[in-house]
Amino acid sequence: MALKNSNPTTTQSWKELTNHFKDIQNINIKDLSKEEHRKEDFSIEFGDLLVDFSKNRITKKTIHLLVELAKEVGLKEAIESQFTGDKINVTEDRAVMHTALRSTSDVPVLVEGKNIKPQIQTALRKIKSFSNKVISGKWKGYTGKSITDIVNIGIGGSDLGPDMIVESLQFYKNQLTTHFVSNIDGDHVSEIIKKLNPETTLFVIVSKTFTTQETITNAETLKNWFLKSATIFDIPKHFVAVSSNLQAVDNFGIDKSNVFPMWDWVGGRFSLWSAVGLSISLSVGFNNYKALLEGAEEMDIHYRNEDFDKNIPVILALISIWYNNFYLAETEAVLPYSQYLKKLPDYLQQAIMESNGKGVDRNGDKVDYQTGTIVWGSTGTNMQHAFMQLVHQGTKLIPADFIGYKQSLYGLTDHHKKLMANYYGQMEALAFGKSKEEVHLELKFSGDEAKINQLLPFKVFEGNRPSNAILFDKLTPRSLGKLVALYEHKIYTQGILWNIYSFDQFGVELGKELAKNLLNKQ
């Protein structure tokens, strides 16, 4: 079934939203917060997750009209199209089935008439068996020693996803040390090599085509380094591949039993749920990797079945569209209050900006409205001492997602209380600010009365700056899976509403082609 194809700005709902925006664009979050049951009416609870979107410049009518827009452009049907294997990646003639990778239901999912569930289960069993061998020490290197280090060689989706998850789940890590090589900058791979012992290192080369310039260059460099102390017959003990190009893998010297599959119906930036996540399974163990998938599946079921006004990814997508297309806010910040999630903003930059950074619609016509938002961020409380000045008092409107956890993993309660006080304090400061009167009183009581007139304008916070609170009980593999899937579904929802294709990325090709031409001329 083809995706419905309609310019959102020509819909009845968009016209109504435009009129509604004119009516309430100067509304103040401080006034809205005085409404009875404001927090309850603008929060969604889903198991161990609470999303509070009450600190936004929205009313019940705003949400109602945004939901009507989602219905009018056929979001419900589009969600079903994804989950049932329709070729929604139209420009590349592919289905988009990362949700099938984490599905535990027995319901068949057909791609080109063939049920893909059995091959997914086979791949998972292979990941489990391989991970267990390496982690237990049964898998030996060429001198009979067990593996101590894993090196993931990939770029883009073959690097950012696994790297982010491994970093985020450091608390659950086993004895293996995991490294990631991505950049074609030779200094990157050279620094990693300094940390390795060829006898105890396992290399995981992740490339669907096995021709990606950065990945193959780095793989060849590591192979040459390895062969300084080993022979070509030792390669099968130390190199495995995640690829669909069996011939190229074989030519490299990797045993075909050590090749894990990649499928056309999984896009790179949504591939950590597949064998691309092998380094995650090696780093934290298969059971934790499976829990990551199960958390994502929970969010999948919620997204597919829940009414839009109670649907977390849909609501967050609609709010983002409200700011992007009506307030013309071009960026949004993702601010995790956990040092473990320091790589999440980088990961989401690829996921969101590569997906929705499109200037033509599904007809191939140039769009005359804003699409993909610019995403950036860092961890709390580090960023409070850095860029938050601009978010609080700058001239730009920057909606922000604050991601927090009720419990810390190591249980340092004093630290965690202070962290969460900052988490809530930042959102309050953004929403409610500090008035001239409050600053006046503060300066008076602090003995700075003489400086009141001079300092007053600099210390006023306008407030009325929006944020969402995304709060989990605890950072676990399962809750992390839920979080990542939440953003994946937000991406797709926005793509449907903007009438663009979210699953191709032709925009990354031209620079690569020109680089290749320049290389050939040298």
From TrEMBL:
The active site is at E354 (proton donor), H385, K512. PANTHER family: GLUCOSE-6-PHOSPHATE ISOMERASE. It comes from the Bacteria. This is Glucose-6-phosphate isomerase. It is found in: Cytoplasm. HAMAP family: G6P_isomerase. Coiled coil: none annotated. It comes from Polaribacter filamentus. Keywords: Cytoplasm, Gluconeogenesis, Glycolysis, Isomerase. GO terms for cellular component: cytosol. SUPFAM superfamilies: SIS domain.
